[in-house]
Predict the 3D structure of the following.
Amino acid sequence: AQSVTQLGSHVSVSEGALVLLRCNYSSSVPPYLFWYVQYPNQGLQLLLKYTSAATLVKGINGFEAEFKKSETSFHLTKPSAHMSDAAEYFCAVSDRAGANNLFFGTGTRLTVIP
Amino acid sequence: NAGVTQTPKFRILKIGQSMTLQCAQDMNHNYMYWYRQDPGMGLKLIYYSVGAGITDKGEVPNGYNVSRSTTEDFPLRLELAAPSQTSVYFCASEGSGANVLTFGAGSRLTVL
């Protein structure tokens, strides 16, 4: 069975600082990995996804994530935080396409300090 | 705009009452899902559907029922509401099976 662990339920960064949100996965087969973002009072939306093409995946709003098989990690980064990045971020894993195969982490709430 | 529409946005129920959360999508997606979101717990799958007339249980189905009579609609029914069902409920849909979900804005339910 697959699962994800997000280290740190809350992360605070200063505006302009590096954003690093950590995600480690467990999967018995090559995984599909996702980052979803949830802005206040909204549903989740896809930020980026890894599907075994390039290991460095670029997403919306300047975010990117790198798949590292040796570390079973898929950390999310952004070089310079903006106030509008304040949101909750969810890492998710799937081992195949199809319904009921997406498992979410518990989320990391990002606060950006002006 | 195309997307997933959930109603109501907020609802307060008394213990033992019943209600239906409505979900509709206009993207002709086959897959639809109901999740609940509790603080610090992430999203838990309640029920899902792979097409009209086909539904199946997710991780936390107890106390809920669903139906899928059309491609567009996927209502979630709560029977005999309990305080443990206080949560934010999200409906989502997906067309390709690639796990790229489109979420509704959520329905916040409080059971007192």
